[in-house]
Recover the amino acids of this structure.
């Protein structure tokens, strides 16, 4: 099924849940729900995991567990996931930006050179970019609803099958199973899994390197002030 078929929905704001009936040429859904055209022989079982689909600014958005998914690829797998703790992500943005402005107007204003300021701002921008990527990317949500030779293990909570050889854990906060689960990080709003664990540790390195610059600058000023 082409992705455009998955995107054939009306402009209604939201529904509680799609009630999937017998699969013919079209999914049977309530009259007050959005309508999604699918071909019976190629319907993707992952779609059974999606709730409350609606469209905003031309973007299809669905709920998976306690997360919000959008940016679906040709296999209906979401590229982007916003976790349940997104408010803490917003708060952290204000902290980072506020701290940066404070340092530029206080410490760097009196002690740092122009080069120090430029390097510090560039590092903060890079950190924010990595932070947003970590916040948005799908951490590896398991969506398989069908049991097969490889996927024998089953999660009773989110009702998905997965390979028992893979590291898959259920997150009660996100309400989904995550492949390659590392931990749930409230500051990125969701779990850290196989798809975003490398970028997450890149984020930690970026933050550490940025404030290491501050420490080096403070030490340098301490010894040069004598």
């Amino acid at each position: 099924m082409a992705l455009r078929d998955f995107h054939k929905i009306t402009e209604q704001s939201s529904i509680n849940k799609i009630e999937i009936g017998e699969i013919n040429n079209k999914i049977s859904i309530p009259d007050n729900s959005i309508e999604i055209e699918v071909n019976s022989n190629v319907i993707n079982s992952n779609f059974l995991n999606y709730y409350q689909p609606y469209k905003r600014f031309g973007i299809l958005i669905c709920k998976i567990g306690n997360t919000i998914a959008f940016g679906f690829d040709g296999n209906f797998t979401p590229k982007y996931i916003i976790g349940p703790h997104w408010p803490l992500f917003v708060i952290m943005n204000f902290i980072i930006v506020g701290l940066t402005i404070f340092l530029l107007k206080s410490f760097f204003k009196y002690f740092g050179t122009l080069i120090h300021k430029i390097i510090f701002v560039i590092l903060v921008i890079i950190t924010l970019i990595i932070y947003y990527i970590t916040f948005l990317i799908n951490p590896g949500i398991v969506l398989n609803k069908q049991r097969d030779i490889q996927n024998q293990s089953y999660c009773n909570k989110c009702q998905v099958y997965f390979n028992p050889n893979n590291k898959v854990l259920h997150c009660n906060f996100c309400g989904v199973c995550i492949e390659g689960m590392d931990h749930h990080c409230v500051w990125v709003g969701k779990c850290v899994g196989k798809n975003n664990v490398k970028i997450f540790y890149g984020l930690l390195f970026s933050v550490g390197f940025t404030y290491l610059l501050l420490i080096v600058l403070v030490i340098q000023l301490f010894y040069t002030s004598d």
